[in-house]
Specification:
Length: 106
């Protein structure tokens, strides 16, 4: 298994991560729906995970994979908080469009 992964140069992993990150960035910049925001941030975090694992494989060190596990745990916490925010947006404004609430009020 390691021989197959070692035969792929790290540039391909970095190109894949850059593509996934750009898709996530495009989603954040063009969408106004809070659910799409969450999915786009997840894509950007997964691009960082691809980089961590690729460099971990390239250097033969497990530190990148440990950091990738921490990023996955951070992403799970981000989703839990994000879903709570989306539920509050929907309850208060009837929509999950982030441009509708212009100010925080009681």
């Amino acid at each position: 298994m390691a021989a197959v992964a070692a035969s792929i140069p790290p540039q391909w992993y970095l190109l894949l991560a850059a593509g996934v990150f750009c898709i996530g960035l495009f989603g954040i910049l063009t969408r106004s729906d809070a659910l799409y925001f969450l999915m786009s941030v997840e894509l950007m975090m997964n691009a960082a995970n691809i980089n961590f694992v690729a460099f971990s494989l390239y250097y033969g060190d497990l530190t990148g994979q440990v950091f990738a596990l921490f990023v996955i745990a951070l992403a799970a916490a981000e989703v839990a908080i994000g879903i709570g925010i989306i539920l509050v947006l929907y309850r208060n404004f009837g929509d999950i469009d982030v441009t509708v609430p212009t100010e925080m009020r009681w």
